[in-house]
Amino acid sequence: MKYVLVTGGVVSGLGKGITASSIGVLLQSCGLRVTCIKIDPYLNYDAGTISPYEHGEVFVLEDGSEVDLDLGNYERFLGCTLTRDNNITLGKIQQQVMDRERKGDYLGTTVQIVPHVTDAIKEWVERVAMIPVDGKEGPPDVCIIELGGTIGDNESRPFTDALSQLSYSVGPENFCLIHVTLVPVLSVVGEQKTKPTQHSIRDLRGLGLSPDIIACRSTKVLEENVKEKLSRFCYVPVQNILSLHDVHNIWHIPLLLKDQNAHEPISKVLNLAGIAEEPSLEKWASMVEISDNLHVQVRIAVVGKYTDLSDAYLSVSKALMHASVAFGKKLVVDLVPSPDLEKTTMKENSSAYKAAWMLLKGADGVIIPGGYGNRGVEGKILAAKYARENNIPFLGICLGMQVAVIEFARSVLCLPDANSTEFKPETKHPCIVFMPEGSTTHMGGTMRLGSRRSYFHVKDSISARLYGNKEFVDERHRHRYEVNPDMAVCLEKAGLSFAAKDETGKRIEIVEVPSHPFFIGAQFHPEFKSRPGKVSPLFLGLIAAACGELDAVLTPVSIQQDNNQHVVLGNETRVDPINGFCNGTNKTSQKSVRHNNDLYLHQISKSSRRKLNGNPYFDSE
User: Fold this and answer.
1) Which pLDDT score is estimated for 602?
2) Alpha-carbon distance 421 to 443, whole Å?
3) Are 233 and 181 in contact (CB under 8 A)?
């Protein structure tokens, strides 16, 4: 097994995860099979109980594990399916070691960081590295390991010791270390400074790890004299010093690495000559080119309470991006703080209230992602109400679906007290209730998690048609509250359609408002399975509806997603002949929508269908 270790120095947040993912893309383009491991040195068992403000969103894998958002980057970039074992935390290692100690596995010896904890880390890495994640038989060729945090952190010490031992045991021809570091520019002098990187490399070597490649993060391209200086003082060849300067789209990073021939030093260190091919990133480059040349905007409002940190909704943002590029639109995301939409904010901070409502009313589509807790919920309910009453395309995810149901019950069923027992346990009309199998005493790992099957009960619903009229779909979940089945009948009679349910036929998975152009709520998280070139159908539908062109993705009998980064639509795919793909503004087109949710009054000709077919995301049958 060949190992590539990615570490970070100077400061956190340099983009080690994107660097590791991009290296994986580059190695895959060389014909190598790649797997990934993320090490998080915190004592939490997993990311499930950590606030999004701490580390960004909690990403959910197929097996239901709650992990760091970087594993989402790995899956999106590499097209792989990871498991809970691909995320190592100090909490997991500590629990494993203590369980062994309690069972007497250490035969009476004193349990210590070295060798017992470090051995547990090495055993975990070597075991997981051999497990394929690409759906093929046999072990991968390369395992990329990302060590979270910054070199020198106290909590990382057991991992740096273990990785130093691993590099020694597997030999230098099987271990390549890439150190991501910062080369800042001081505004006073205006030159790139190398001293922080020099100190970081010194600290790294003091821990028994020596870098083979230095990846320098900077605002601009690394200057040649700076490379030479780093080479001189850090004892790394000039050709092994890479410039990872700021780019407007992270999809450029694999191309940036390829342009600097980053595969060559990796191949040389790992002795991959005769195994690795010349990198071929034509499809990736084509995707990037299309993304860079989009001009007609589609504006989506993401309404939530974690808007101060964009990483809190990272997968939602990426899924919107995948869908907008697939539909030939330049995405503009407006993060709308849901507490600012509430009447209390109007009294306390009128400017924030006006700004939030201006963003919401200026959007072509609205999405309310998942979340927990009472703060900002009333603002989300108001956003759902605005979208429903004004025919604005709406997608509610997890809590977003639940607040849409609450709003429907309040406005349509005239139940002003309707609420979730999460927010108001004493409510007389509990639309959303705690799941009976949930735990009331433990928070971590006790939700309904991972891939679950949803069966379509309304065959001609928008969601069913977006998913290609399949009988069922498998999507990832993360929730402990659900739509109250006791209120299902009255909600349905009032006009709320339950398009999909679980295998029991009782638990609601997808809701729709049939009289609305596009109003969908999903209990699952479709964003977790969205990939470049493998777009989530619900996100594609939202973007299409926001552009006033939902019919372009509903007309096909099915939407088939293949492994060649294409979304294959049926023969009747149509596009607006005047404005390219779609009209880019939602306001007028929504007024021309018939409320049977089937037919738009747009007349679309075959002439511009060829423009859609020119997008490598799309291919007509």
Assistant:
1) 31
2) 17
3) no
Question: Which superfamily does CATH assign the domain made up of 2-288 to?
Answer: P-loop containing nucleotide triphosphate hydrolases (3.40.50.300)
Q: Determine contact, residues 479/448, Cβ cutoff 8 Å.
A: yes
477 catalytic? Reply is no
- 294-554: same fold as 2-288? yes
Query: Hey, what are 520's tokens?
Result: 């969908």
pLDDT tens per residue across span 516-572: 999 999 999 999 999 998 999 999 999 999 999 999 998 653 333 343 333 434 333
- Under CATH, to which class is 294-554 assigned? alpha beta
Q: Where are the domains of the chain?
A: 2-288, 294-554
The per-residue pLDDT for range 123-157, each reduced to its tens digit, is 999 999 999 999 999 999 999 999 999 999 999 99
Residue type, 479: H
Of residues 525, 549, 566, 582, which has the active-site annotation? 525
Q: Write down the pLDDT at residue 578.
A: 28
Tracing tokens 């552009």 back to the chain, one arrives at 547
Measured distance between the N- and C-terminal CA atoms of the chain, rounded to whole angstroms:
41
Q: Are 404 and 384 in contact (CB under 8 A)?
A: yes
Segment holding 14, helix H or strand E: none
C-alpha dist (Å) from residue 246 to 261, 320, 610: 18, 22, 35
Distance CA 513, CA 497 (A): 6
- Cβ neighbours of 451 (radius 10 Å): 17
Tell me which of 398, 431, 547, 582 is the catalytic residue: 398
Q: Any residues with CB less than 8 A from the CB of 610 and at least 6 apart, and which? A: none
Do 371 and 306 touch, CB atoms closer than 8 A? yes
Our answer to whether residue 527 is catalytic in this structure is yes
Whether pTM > 0.70 for this model: the answer is yes
